[in-house]
Amino acid sequence: MTAMEECPRCGGDLDPTAPAISRITAPREIAICSTCSALEAHRDAWGLPPIPPSDWPVHPLELGREFALWKDFEQKGERVELSPDDVEELFPSEEIQRLRDAEDERCED
After folding, report:
1. 100 vs 23, 43, 65, 94, 105, CA distance in Å?
2. What is the pLDDT averaged over residues 76-91?
3. What digits encode the pLDDT tens for the residues 3-42?
4. Rg (CA), the chain
5. Distance CA 40, CA 48 (A)
């Protein structure tokens, strides 16, 4: 059995024998887990900006929102159209930045 590695985008398990590849780098060279690969594809389809590798690992709150939106989309079976206001409501940049800052402070202590 091959040991699992860590997905750099979410911190979850990454099977090194069957990784997905991040779609936001050129060339596509960063291995990520299949869930993160699907979330990147959905962000692209919804018109949301990608989360660059410099902002990885993605904060769990933001991952949760991505996942919830994805599941809501699957249940309704229809395309999700998001306006800039919808994006800010679902992914408020100030809240995410505040949580990232708090996490950084905890890591420094």
Report:
1. 23, 20, 15, 10, 9
2. 60
3. 678 899 988 888 888 888 888 877 778 899 888 888 888 8
4. 15
5. 9
Distances (CA, A) of 87 to 13, 33, 36, 46, 56: 28, 24, 19, 9, 19
Distance CA(96)–CA(103), nearest Å, equals 11
The residues that bridge with 5 in the sheet, in sequence order, are: 14
Q: Which amino acid is at 10?
A: C
Pick the more confident residue, 2 or 33.
33
What b/e sequence results for 20-38 when a residue is b if at least 16 CB atoms lie within 10 Å of its CB, and e otherwise? bebebeeeeebbbbebbbe
Computed over every residue of the chain, the mean pLDDT equals 76
- Backbone phi, then psi, for 57, in 5-degree steps? -70, 145
